[in-house]
Amino acid sequence: MAGQLPFHALTIVFAAVRGSDPSPDTLRDLVFVCRSWADAASFVLYDSVALYGGATAALFNRTIGKCPQRAYLVRTLLLALELDDDAAAGRRGTDEEGRQLVKVLAVCPNVVNLALRPLPPSVRPALLAAIASKRLDTLSCAPRLSTPHATPFYASDLVSLVQPSLQELELDCWTSSLDTGGALLPSFPSTLHLTHLKLAFAGAEKLILRLLAAAQSLEVVYVYIEAMFEDPAALASALMPSATTLRSLTLKTNPPLEARPGQQSPYPPAFNRILPHFHQLDYLSISASEISPEALRFLPPSLTHLEIESITDFPHFDFSSHLFRVLSSTSFTLQTLIIHDDGWRVDEAEAVRIVCAGKGIKFACL
């Protein structure tokens, strides 16, 4: 009786089975229970594929060699050397493992969502060629894709990675390969449709700014950089094209200092000026080096969550006292305020908590 169900109905059944069981073993068994189930079960089974290591990739490639039509079913693909990211970071995969993994991407023409973990450096040209042949919606290259034993990506490679069709991009690169020193910066397509951008770099500030500026309809932005931004005004300007669409913004530096060494004023003005223009912004998490307590006077009415990370490192600037003064004299639509700073005294945190409670704001000092 079940074998007579319509194909669409069977795919719904098998999708429910996959959702209730993280392991694909159940679906593999269903393929062999009834011959008429095989196509529907395969349609669900091959929609999302995660391969860890060269051996599993080689097995997949042999299967595709016998049933080439199944390669057309793959839309979401994860390629990695190990299931555990920490284990993969400490292992240099063989060239053959890398070739088998990249071959999977090359033979699956309909992949639109691609996640990559560190692969052997030798496969970089083939990997970039395989990516360039796709029309991706999402691309995640993380975590720490450019480790000493992993695929090095260079600034010029980003033109291949950042396709006009791309909607979501995550890059986690920690070598100097992306730091061009201001030279040979790539020109990105003028028709980028990125809505989600997550970048974690050791440096490459100019590259970050160019990417932000090229995407003019960003909704979610996460940027972490192992340095302080040298030009906060340029960073603010790069975000302005997305002012009417941005809903969530995270900007974190290391260290997240309250003031810049040698700076005359403790108030970096760039973000203070642009914040009122972000009419859709609901979530803001930012290092204190890029914002000041005075910016609280300019928060857009849409903002409900504000998180500030700071290090009390300069005796001439007490973040808590300024924050308390601004909070006491300004009305807010905030629902949550979180401060990351182990330099606060207990009485300072309690004073701010009381002021926030009076304004209906949940406050935490971590």
How widely separated are the two ends?
Answer: 60 Å
User: How much is the average pLDDT?
Assistant: 78
Number of helices: 13
List the secondary-structure elements in sequence, H or E.
Answer: HHHEHEHHEHEHEEHEHEHEEHEHE
Spatial strand arrangement across the major sheet = 1-2-3-4-5-6-7-8-9-10-11-12
Q: How many beta-strand elements?
A: 12
Radius of gyration: 24 Å
How does the helix and strand content classify structurally?
alpha/beta
Relative helix content: 25-40%
Q: Major sheet: size, sense and barrel closure?
A: 12 strands, parallel
Question: In percent terms, what proportion of residues is strand?
Answer: 15-25%
Shape: elongated
Extract low-pLDDT stretches: 258-267
Word description of this protein:
By secondary structure, this protein is an alpha/beta fold. It is about 35% helix and about 15% strand. It contains 13 helices and 12 strands. It has helices spanning about 5-20, 25-35, 40-45, 55-65, 85-90, 95-105, 125-130, 160, 205-215, 230-240, 270-275, 320-330, 345-360, and strands at about 50, 75-80, 115, 140, 170-175, 195-200, 220-225, 250-255, 285, 305-310, 335-340, 360-365. It has a 12-stranded parallel beta sheet with strand order 1-2-3-4-5-6-7-8-9-10-11-12, covered by helices on one side. Strand 6 (about 195-200), helix 9 and strand 7 form a beta-alpha-beta unit. The longest helix is centred in the N-terminal third of the chain and has 14 residues, at about 5-20. The chain is elongated, with a radius of gyration of 24 Å.
